[in-house]
PrsW family intramembrane metalloprotease
Amino acid sequence: MGSRRLESTVFTVVVSVITALAAVAIAIVLALSGEPSTLVLAALLAFVPVGPLLACYLWLDRYEPEPRSLLAGALAWGAFVATFAAIVVQGIGGFVVGWTDEFSLVVVAPVVEEATKGFFLLMLLWWRRGEFDGVLDGLVYAGMVGIGFAYTENILYLAAAYAGTDGENPGGLAEVGVLFVLRCVISPFAHPLFTAFTGIGLGLAVASRSRWVRALAPIAGYLLAVAMHAAWNGSTLLGEGAGFLLVYPLMMVPAFGLMIGLAIWVRSRERSLLGVALSDAARRGLIPAADIQHVVDLPSRRRARAFARTHGGAEGLAQMRDYQQAAVELGYLHHRVLRGTAPPNHLATGQVFVDRMFAARSRIAFPATPSGGAHR
């Protein structure tokens, strides 16, 4: 218990300090990027796709809602740390090594940016392993980092488009409008999609019993992220940008569609996965069998919370939420125990969840079940 708290504290402190320092640096970069009014316009336009993207990833995260602090940390890491690190590495490398803009766009940017984004997932896996149960968690956290990264990058690109770069691109609202459509309307999912491959690789590693999969899946995921990113960036260099019109429908749209299908399929498995795991836990006396439907079935979960609010007010609702969350965490942990991929401290961690459930269970009542009345 003490070790988990220490790891959680270390992770929080490290991420907070690095993010704060990077946020200051990014603020300086933004201040040097254009006039305040230009930056305000760029920030507002860059924010347009953020809400819908967040809603999609929060929908994926409904079965086992991740701590909001970690989701916010992932967003902040992408917006400040990954963005600033990518700017520094590419800038210093270009000055020292002297690589061309084309090489930086197609090779350096994908390698560096996917590494800086993926590093948050590695830290999360190292210090907060209990919050990383598999592919779905990898998709959610990768998506949050990608959304944050894309937001800041879009501000920089939109501000530069307004200012103009040379006689061929004089800038102004027309340039901003074209770039806004390309980056914020047609392809807002690009960075979350790239980083999703890293998240999938890490998620497969967490859930696998094979040493080879645990070792190679994260590497393969990162390389796929880099390859997709490189193909995306490289398409803008083909045929004076016409390559984008080919790569987008033939590669990006199908890849995005497959990723959506994978995400929905993985999410649909969560109900049966939790049901099987908690049914086995019930046979071991860790949870009342009658409670399981109020944990694994989302409509039943909502009805249980409404019932708790009606009969216990805000306190009853809070206790029901805590009970359900602890039961879900127990279910995922028990699933890993059954698969033989449980973390070393799973007994102590599982006991924490059971204690939380026991403490809340005595203060709540569940709505009527098909076999009878309300139960306690």
Notes: The chain is about 80% helix and 0% strand. The two ends are 29 Å apart (CA to CA). Residues 273-361 form one domain. The mean pLDDT is 86.
